[in-house]
């Protein structure tokens, strides 16, 4: 099959090439899927920017396809939960599985959800990781509730754009910090207060918050504590455990859950897709590129300011 492979002897977007790779092997609990669309993410950005090729090669040893953590497509084989012809969206296990930027992917049925005909494949592909990460951070970890005052840092990215919507959907008041050109976009998503990080630093805010969701990884707990209300929650999206912050939280009335998502959840994604069909949540897609324009898509990914997801249409594979 066709898929995106990496030449580790090259740099930047020149590392990425379309090549022939073996078809995926479908294991128990999986179905084979014809991939229709894949969004680009920080995962691909790491491959563009990281020059430590040996560590990258070791991390992904044994895989043919290294790129594409989430996708939409059409099921080609019958499984226990899905049947041939089903339209689906979902993700792979980030730490184990072959990735999805290819003609075909074998995916665990527990990480998939039915994608209604009313949602385009390119929109559906943007949903799994961004919305599921947000749901875990705001709903499961921070226990967001109606009336909460929420600060979202990095609000205009592929995850942040869903964070704003899910927080508003929960009845929260949202303060969003994003890029200089993001104000109209964040206003459209429903944010109540919007600041460009160039006009107002998070350190200059005078408000206090029940939840701080830091997707830009700019704050440590010791810097966020004065912004939190009593029993406030600082959701840290940096998987590097900050021992000092954890210790400080133990002697205060603040909380610091650490956000790490290793794989998808059909239970969460089903809820998100239901809200998309009712119009409560909008797919956050900035732009769509064809397979032939993949280098342009990757170059766009490197731009500092993005509004939602950049999606590649793989239907022509």
Automatic annotation (TrEMBL):
<keyword id="KW-0560">Oxidoreductase</keyword>
<dbReference type="InterPro" id="IPR011032">
    <property type="entry name" value="GroES-like_sf"/>
</dbReference>
<feature type="domain" description="Enoyl reductase (ER)">
    <location>
        <begin position="12"/>
        <end position="312"/>
    </location>
</feature>
<dbReference type="InterPro" id="IPR020843">
    <property type="entry name" value="ER"/>
</dbReference>
<dbReference type="Pfam" id="PF13602">
    <property type="entry name" value="ADH_zinc_N_2"/>
</dbReference>
<dbReference type="GO" id="GO:0016491">
    <property type="term" value="F:oxidoreductase activity"/>
</dbReference>
<protein>
    <submittedName>
        <fullName>NADP-dependent oxidoreductase</fullName>
        <ecNumber>1.-.-.-</ecNumber>
    </submittedName>
</protein>
<dbReference type="InterPro" id="IPR050700">
    <property type="entry name" value="YIM1/Zinc_Alcohol_DH_Fams"/>
</dbReference>
<dbReference type="InterPro" id="IPR036291">
    <property type="entry name" value="NAD(P)-bd_dom_sf"/>
</dbReference>
């Amino acid at each position: 099959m066709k898929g995106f492979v990496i030449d580790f002897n090259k740099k930047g977007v020149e590392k990425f090439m379309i090549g022939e790779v073996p078809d995926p092997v479908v294991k128990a609990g999986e179905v084979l899927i014809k991939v229709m669309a894949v969004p680009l993410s920080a995962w691909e950005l790491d491959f563009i920017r990281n020059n430590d090729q040996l560590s990258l090669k070791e991390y992904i040893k044994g895989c043919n396809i290294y790129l594409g953590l989430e996708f939409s497509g059409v099921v080609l084989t019958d499984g226990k939960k899905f049947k041939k012809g089903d339209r689906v969206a979902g993700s792979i296990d980030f730490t184990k599985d072959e990735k999805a930027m290819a003609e075909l992917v074998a995916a665990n049925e527990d990480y998939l959800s039915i994608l209604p005909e009313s949602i385009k494949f390119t929109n559906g592909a943007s949903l799994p990781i961004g919305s599921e990460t947000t749901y875990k951070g705001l709903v499961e970890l921070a226990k967001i509730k109606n009336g909460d005052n929420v600060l979202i840092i990095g609000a205009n990215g592929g995850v942040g754009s869903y964070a704003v919507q899910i927080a508003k959907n929960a009845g929260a008041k949202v303060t969003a910090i994003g890029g200089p050109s993001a104000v109209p976009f964040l206003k459209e998503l429903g944010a109540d207060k919007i600041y460009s990080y160039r006009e107002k630093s998070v350190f200059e805010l005078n408000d206090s918050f029940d939840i701080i969701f830091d997707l830009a990884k700019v704050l440590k707990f010791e810097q966020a504590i004065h912004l939190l209300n009593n029993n406030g929650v600082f959701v840290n999206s940096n998987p590097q455990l900050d021992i000092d912050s954890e210790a400080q939280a133990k002697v205060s009335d603040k909380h610091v859950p650490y956000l790490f998502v290793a794989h998808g959840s059909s239970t969460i994604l089903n809820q998100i897709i239901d809200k998309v069909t009712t119009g409560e949540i909008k797919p956050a897609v900035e732009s769509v590129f064809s397979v032939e324009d993949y280098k342009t898509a990757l170059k766009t990914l490197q731009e500092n300011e993005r509004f939602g997801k950049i999606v590649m249409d793989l239907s022509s594979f």
